[in-house]
Write a structure and sequence with these properties.
595 residues, alpha/beta, Glucose Oxidase, domain 1, Enzyme I, Chain A, domain 2, TIM Barrel, 3 domains, eight-stranded mixed sheet, globular, binds phosphoenolpyruvate, binds magnesium ion
Length: 595
């Protein structure tokens, strides 16, 4: 299968990292040196200042030229949705802090350009390291990559390109930049593995778009793997197998074929109705973080947006968007998804979502602090401008308003009062809006579960936010890796909470949906349908997977599976029983790791 090399690595050596892009690749390794250029700092004489500043400016403009080249290539490769990644890097090149501070260091501290840029980057990294939000913290890697590019151009070091590789290989690198990924020769590079990285890094996002399997965060893979070593990567489970035996090779070849077949088959589900075998419709909607994801969600079969996390609009910019800017975005999404509904969740900042402008106070326990509607109710003007924008956009499609983190009826009434005031203002100003826009709440606190019947009387719909509900219900910090093993969606307490909420919604005759991550997992799909959920909102890429399952089961069958698990005493018992039932029912789907 592959050219032989002298191999010191034991057969079937397994490494486990993060599955960043699904799929299986089998090929020889190709090591790429992406070690960072070390800066050599030296003091300069005042008369050298101009020359160092010029060298720095030249490095910036060479970097800009290179990135524009990558952008051109991305366009020709049909990656236009991802141009923002390269644009982010271009923007970093112009960042005032990066450029201004570096020049100031050269001038005032008399440090050479290399030393100055390295100090500035160090400071920027510290700022990013202190951010708790994973997505934003991950943007630090963009700073690193741009910094490395400038540094290489400054010292005149050429980076190996991934364009001219001749054999079919799996690239092994310490880190890869999004530019590397765009420039890869996709015919030859069929997968990659890296020491660093996470699922939310831009390189991983691009790999998923290009359909290149990838495993990242392997920590030491570059020091273990020699060039031309036969290897297998499983981007679904995040496993890497070095020097595979004949048996493992055959097993993975079969897995690869099965995976590719199942992926191909998924495409056919995009346009099929989301219903059970006996014709019960379950609306599958998309969660939206950024408005420009709406078109893709629609293409992937989303029947509307079940959760629009508007805080990202605020997190993207230094200055909060005003009413007009918000209106334009909400209107665009409403029009894009029409006639399907778009549920706009009002601002959910605080907790792990940080907006620079709001200067949220340093709280000891931010997840239980001034976040979501608590913050909106305190910042009434901001809240009103968001409600005005949503209401004004409501005539351009089917919009629904949803309040996050409601913990009591009083809070819901306070939110509704703002809404009534805003409606009156709009009437007085003669501005059009849909007076009967549905108003719902997220169920994500244990108190909301316990009084779901009371809340249901004053809500048009519920949407369960399991990401938070599980964390509060089980007292597990959702972003703390040390207790991650206790974060169990199938914990009997969670299942009871879901049951109680569904019953309250059913009794009151209001719609009940789910928009936490649990909704997009194919393993849980039958349990949620049995509980009574009729709307599931998720990352749009999961929609076809869920459809494939639900279209094969009837409500009765779903109920039978549910009865086997609902009274079991531990999360582990429930998991095992559910996996077992699903494996029996869908052997081809659930025997394949992680799919
Ligand atoms: C949730 O808590 O499940 C949810 C969907 O909201 P977020 O993840 O934005 O907190
Ligand atoms: Mg939440």
């Amino acid at each position: 299968m592959m050219a032989s090399v002298k191999i010191d690595i034991e057969q079937d050596t397994i490494l486990v990292g993060i599955g960043a892009s699904p799929g299986i690749a089998i090929a020889n390794s190709h090591l790429v040196n992406r070690a960072r250029v070390a800066a050599v700092e030296r003091r300069i004489a005042p008369e050298e200042v101009q020359a160092e500043i010029k060298a720095f400016d030249d490095a910036l403009s060479t970097s800009r030229g290179q990135l524009l080249e990558v952008k051109k290539q991305a366009l020709t490769e049909g990656l236009s949705d991802h141009l923002y990644i390269i644009d982010t890097h271009l923007l970093i090149l112009e960042d005032q802090m990066l450029v201004g501070e570096t020049k100031e260091l050269i001038q005032k501290e008399l440090v050479n350009a290399e030393g100055a840029i390295s100090r500035t980057l160090g400071r920027l990294r510290k700022v990013f390291d202190s951010i708790t939000d994973e997505y934003l913290r991950e943007r630090r890697s963009d700073i690193d990559l741009v910094g490395d590019r400038i540094m290489r151009n400054l010292v005149g070091e050429v980076r190996d390109t991934l364009n001219d590789i001749e054999d079919t290989v799996i690239v092994v690198a310490h880190d890869l930049s999004p530019a590397d990924t765009v420039q890869m020769n996709k015919e030859k590079i069929i997968g990659f593995v890296t020491d660093v990285g996470s699922r939310t890094a831009h390189t991983a996002i691009l790999a998923r778009s290009l359909g290149i399997p990838a495993v990242v965060g392997l920590e030491t893979v570059t020091s273990l793997v020699p060039n031309a070593l036969p290897m297998i990567i499983d981007g679904i489970s995040g496993t890497v197998i070095l020097n595979p035996s004949q048996e493992t090779f055959r097993e993975y070849l079969e897995k690869k074929q099965r995976y590719e077949y199942l992926e191909k088959e998924l495409e056919a589900f995009r346009t099929l109705p989301a219903e059970t075998r006996d014709g019960h419709h379950i609306a599958l909607r998309a969660n939206l973080d950024l408005s420009d994801e709406a078109a893709e969600a629609r293409e992937l079969g989303a029947e509307g947006i079940g959760l629009f996390r508007t805080e990202f609009l605020f997190m993207e910019h230094d200055v909060a968007p005003n009413e007009e800017e918000q209106f334009a975005v909400y209107r665009q999404v409403a029009e894009e998804m029409r006639p399907h509904p778009v549920t706009i969740r009002t601002l959910d900042v605080g907790g792990d979502k940080f907006v620079p402008e709001f200067n949220l106070c340093d709280e000891l326990n931010p997840v239980m602090g001034l976040r979501a509607v608590r913050f909106s109710l305190k910042e009434g003007r901001l809240f009103k401008s968001q409600l005005r924008a949503i209401l004004r956009a409501s005539v351009y499609g089917s919009l629904r308003i949803m309040f996050p983190m409601i913990s009591g009826v009083g809070e819901l009434r306070a939110c509704r009062q703002y809404l009534d005031e805003v409606k009156q203002e709009l009437r007085d100003e003669g501005l059009a809006f849909n007076d009967s826009v549905p108003v719902g709440i997220m169920i994500e606190t244990p108190s909301a579960v316990l009084i779901a019947d009371l809340l249901a009387r004053e809500s048009d719909f519920f949407s369960v936010g399991t990401n938070d509900l599980i964390q509060y219900c089980l007292a597990i910090d959702r972003s703390n890796e040390h207790v991650a093993y206790l974060y169990e969606p199938l914990h009997p307490a969670v299942l009871r909470a879901l049951k109680q909420v569904c019953q309250a919604a059913e009794t009151a005759g209001i719609e009940i949906g789910m928009c936490g991550e649990m909704a997009g997992e194919q393993l849980y799909c039958v349990v949620l349908i049995a509980l009574g959920f009729r709307e599931l909102s998720m990352n749009a890429t999961n929609i076809s997977r869920l459809k494939r399952i639900m279209r094969q089961v009837s409500l009765q069958e779903v109920q039978e599976i549910f009865e086997k698990i609902i009274d079991l005493p531990t999360a582990a018992d429930v998991n095992l029983a559910l996996e077992d039932a699903m494996r029996k029912r869908f052997p081809e789907l659930f025997n394949l790791s992680g799919i």
